[in-house]
Amino acid sequence: MADSDVTSADMWSYPEVVGRIDMSGYEVEAIDGEIGTVDETTLDPDASYVVVDTGPWIFGKKVVIPAGLVERVDRDDEKVYVRRTKDEIRKAPEFDSDRYREADYRDKLGAYYAAGPAQHEEPPDA
Fold first, then answer.
1. Domain CATH number, residue 96
2. What pTM value is reported for the model?
3. 42-46, long-range: CB within 8 Å, 24+ apart, which pairs?
4. Is 126 part of a structural domain of the chain?
5. In angstroms, rounded to a whole number, what is the distance separating the alpha carbons of residues 38 and 73?
6. Digit-coded pLDDT (tens) for 6-58
């Protein structure tokens, strides 16, 4: 599934190839390398996501990644592969430990991730 194929309806549901599995503790791989480990997995219909602890990579930051961006899960190696780059994930809206389970917070995240990679690039120097 291409990034442009992830609609807002699909954003918060795991792809069929992934299924519904608790991935807590699994390593997380972005398109361009490892970003951390899964701290929390939700399995709520149409409201699923993973919370990733980036550890020292982004100074202990946590990020929420919508379930629809999970490309695949390697259950043998306990690895989750997501369809975003490390930089896109680093620039994602701040993790809010008080609000990350709320629909309006997920809407903000969904808009960020749905915009796609081109929207997150730095403008060239003039």
1. 2.30.30.240
2. 0.83
3. 42/67, 45/13, 46/9, 46/12, 46/13
4. no
5. 12
6. 555 689 999 988 888 899 999 999 999 999 999 999 998 888 999 999 887 66
